[in-house]
Amino acid sequence: MFKSVARQTARQLGSRGSAAPVTRRYVHTPVAFDWKDPLGASNLFTEEELAISETAESYCQERMLPRVLDAYRNEDYDRKILEEMGELGLLGATIEGYGCAGVSSVASGLITRAVERVDSGYRSGMSVQSSLIMGGIDEFGSQEQKDKFLPQLAKGKMLGCFGLTEPNHGSDPGSMETVAKPHPTKKGYFSLSGAKTWITNSPISDVMLVWAKLQETGKIRGFLVERSECPPGTLETPALKHKNGLRASLTGMIQLDECPVPEANMFPEIEGLRGPFSCLNGARYGIAWGTMGALEDCIARTRQYALERKQFKNNPIAKYQLVQKKLADATTDAAFGILAAVQVGRLKDEGKAAPEMISMIKRQNCDRALVNARILQEVFGGNAVSDEYHIGRHVANLFVTQTYEGQSDIHALILGRAITGLQAFC
Ligand SMILES: Cc1cc2nc3c(=O)[nH]c(=O)nc-3n(C[C@H](O)[C@H](O)[C@H](O)COP(=O)(O)OP(=O)(O)OC[C@H]3O[C@@H](n4cnc5c(N)ncnc54)[C@H](O)[C@@H]3O)c2cc1C
Fold first, then answer.
1. Whole-prediction pTM
2. How high is the mean pLDDT of the chain?
3. At what angle do helices 274-308 and 391-403 cross, to 10 degrees?
4. Domains of the chain
5. Any idea where this protein resides (predicted)?
């Protein structure tokens, strides 16, 4: 459905679409303030982008939202969700060909915003599939790898994950210990050994993009490990249970013990951290949009609650200044965050986005979403503790978004390095 809308509007607007011509207002008619879109960001979207956003929002509110409480309570991720998203053309949406929609970065941001409005865990599952594995294969894979994996991943029939973090190396992946060496008995194969941890989707992944150091050169390379091809005992992907955030997504380890991987499954050229960091850039851009969706949901729920809840002389608590300030702060941060994400998205499509811009919006939007969600939670009083009010779930999730794909302070160091020319990591 989504692909046909996208194609139709793409025909009208050109494949990437273009912003509607600006008409100058000479007559000053009063403009009503819209608390859901305070700075009028929707004026910056093309018709195609608006249609995609509408499709994604309807799917998420109608099909995902009813499942989220049970998923969160039971730490149970329904893999059918990725298949449903695949049917709508929501996976790997910026990729051209291979059954992907080939839409703008802003359109893909609107999709992540819609998904995270429901839950950051659902958005994480989608981001890993779309940006980390599909994006990686599209950018660095051989033609054979693209032909083999991308169409199935786009449909959500095959699930993927991205293994960079290790038990002893998170913020500093350059020190990773996972190693690839020529297989002692199988010609044309590498043997991979090592452990990755906190890997979204690993327990249910069919293909894993594992970053490992090639023993011969000491350089980091990307390997596509196919679960069905791994002999027993060479690959384990245990789930990490009892999380107190992101419970609607599955997280696990990847344990490799002399696992044979064909040479044809190594990314042909990319070496060093540029490979994983480039994939992470795409995902971090999505997180900047997604966290704004989560914050917008917190704002809408808090506003509704504050209008209905009455205290002192039967006044709705929304009437009190302290409550209004909380809503004003959060709404301002959400509006600024969306505009920044639109700007970086447009520059990204023009090839003008520096990675530090993505660090800036990932950090800022995650931080502001987390801080505001925690403050808005106060408006619910004791009811904030009940998961049926959803705000506590967003708060717990937003801690994770601020931590993964570069913890907030690490992005500050990336920006500090770019500002001063001096690196403060070690
Ligand atoms: C639910 C979940 C899902 C995840 N999914 C994935 C996934 O799919 N794939 C994947 O590869 N990883 C994934 N991660 C891992 C995530 O990216 C890491 O947790 C993150 O990079 C931080 O690494 P760490 O946990 O080892 O923390 P550490 O690196 O140990 O950092 C701990 C703290 O120390 C600070 N710190 C570290 N170094 C410095 C320094 N030089 N200066 C100042 N402060 C510093 C950090 O900012 C942080 O606050 C996931 C994590 C979670 C929780």
1. 0.94
2. 94
3. 160
4. 2-17+33-159 (1.10.540.10), 161-265 (2.40.110.10), 274-420 (1.20.140.10)
5. Mitochondrion matrix
